[in-house]
Amino acid sequence: MPVALPIGRKRLERLRGEAHRLLAGNWRQGSLADGTPYGFTCPSPPRYRHQWYWDSCFHAIVWRHFDPPRAREELRTLMRGGRLDGFIPHTIFWHDSAGWRRAPFYATHSVRGNRATAHMQTPLLALAWELVAAASDDDPGFAAEGLDALRLHYDWLARHRDPDGDGLISIIHPDESGLDDSPKYDAVFGWMTHYRPGYFWLVERSRRLRYDSHAIIARYDEHVEDVLVNVVYALSLHALARLSGDDTYRQRAERTERALLERCWDEDRGLFWDLAGRGHTPQRISTWSSLAPLALPSLPERIGRRLIEEHLLDPRRYGAPFAIPSVSMEEPSFRAGWHLFRCWRGPSWINTVWLLAPALRRFGYGAEADRILASCVELVERHGFREYYNPLNGEGLAARHFGWSTLLIDLLPAAVGEDPEHAGAPKTPRLGAADKSRSFRGSVREELWSMGAEAASETRRRVARALTGTRSRSAARRRTAPIRRG
Ligand code: GLC
Fold first, then answer.
1. Is the Cβ atom of 369 under 6 angstroms away from ligand 1?
2. Which of 36, 314, 439, 459 has the smallest C-beta neighbourhood within 10 Å, fewest atoms?
3. Burial of 54 by CB count in 10 Å (0-12 exposed, 13-18 middle, 19+ buried)?
4. What digits encode the pLDDT tens for the residues 250-267?
């Protein structure tokens, strides 16, 4: 279906140019002391200087449009960072050890001296591998080259993360899904959730059990069969089946899809819920993860339409002016703006749109997908490729020059007509002028400055909101105050 976006050739080329420059600027390559080579895109230096699993998959998916050899190197490096038994870490510290500010947050085996974390992240690798292989006419062996390691990886996941054998894999730390502080984990992880002090204890507890997921899952209730993780797992198993021609991976994917429908779907609420703990307790908090099964081509149409019409497009829930909020706007935990260490409690992320917008098109909601994409183009033209954005006012938030926000390029058509006259320039300055003058070039000083600026603007907004609230409350009191008679 053609994309009816109000964007013409010049604007598209500018966006592609900016995305390519960003990825090239964040590219890190070299070799370890033992000669092991690496080449990957860090998400956003200096805040995110290492290699993150799902970020790298997203980066490779975009790199394939500009430079397929780099896309392949990014995925090969990720695979190289894994263990021989098929485990691939959430974060790999290739060229740089974990910095003082972030080191305490990393789920490593010991406090110091680690080359990677000991926990996983949403397993997108086989899907990314397939997409990159399809863009690799210059290296036709790439598809087959990864098969043994991919098999090992997805077998490791089944063996270690699905102890009850129901087809749904579990995460044992909230950030293993990549949705670190999502409110859907608040009740499960409680004081040990990602942004609370107890997270350190969660890490310590896993260390003591050597990250043995069977032992952790059997002994504790802080683990989740996560909907997003399992959707991506199923998509990747399908990709692996196509890449390898091995039908058992397709059967495993279908088993996961069936389990999502049978165990996570809530017919009354029309949403999918994560299942927590040994009792498989549904976590009834509406986050974009509840909509993620839309990405499964096998999803029954009736369920897809309910997710879309009752949730994704509902202006009270996910139908925000800018992109797709990470939490339903109706949830009491929804927060649109920036919070220190909290990022998945409302703001819109581009990877969400990457997963859900094609599904909207598939179900026949092309105009709505175009509207969402157009809002993303506007976000990036106004504020650059930021880590996330305020879904209500479109403000760009947190890290600048953030790698996976370039996924927007993967959603836009490769070629479009000339810019229509009426499309005009956006009201606020485009990439370049304003953003460049404040652009984030990578020093710690600048990062602290940008975090400070975000904190100040959030505080300003809250004070303004509180004052407006106080004023309107006292006006209301005046209106309702009993009339005293003298
Ligand atoms: C944040 C995100 C996570 C991502 C990481 C690196 O922690 O929550 O999903 O992988 O940053 O960009």
1. no
2. 459
3. buried
4. 999 999 999 999 999 999
- Ligand 1 pocket test target in 23, 26, 41, 48 with most atoms within 8 Å of CB: 48
Ligand 1 centroid–CA 387 distance in Å is: 9
The vertex-321 CA angle with 290 and 451, nearest 5°, equals 85
Question: Are residues 384 and 396 in contact, defined by beta-carbon separation less than 8 angstroms?
Answer: yes
The model's pLDDT over 33-87, given as tens digits with 9 standing for 90+, comes to 999 999 999 999 988 999 999 999 999 999 999 999 999 999 999 999 999 999 9
Question: What SS3 class is residue 82?
Answer: coil
- The reported pLDDT for the residue numbered 436 is 38
Residues in Cβ contact with 98 at an 8 Å cutoff, skipping those fewer than 6 apart: 50, 106, 108, 114
pLDDT-based confidence at 17, cuts 50/70/90? very high
Q: State both tokens at 242.
A: 């196509």
Q: Give the ligand 1 atom nearest the CA of 121.
A: 10
Strands 224-225 and 170-171, sheet pairing: antiparallel
Q: Which atom of ligand 1 is nearest to the CA of 43?
A: 12
Report whether residue 181 contacts ligand 1, using a CB cutoff of 6 Å.
Answer: no
Give the predicted TM-score (pTM) of the model. Answer: 0.88
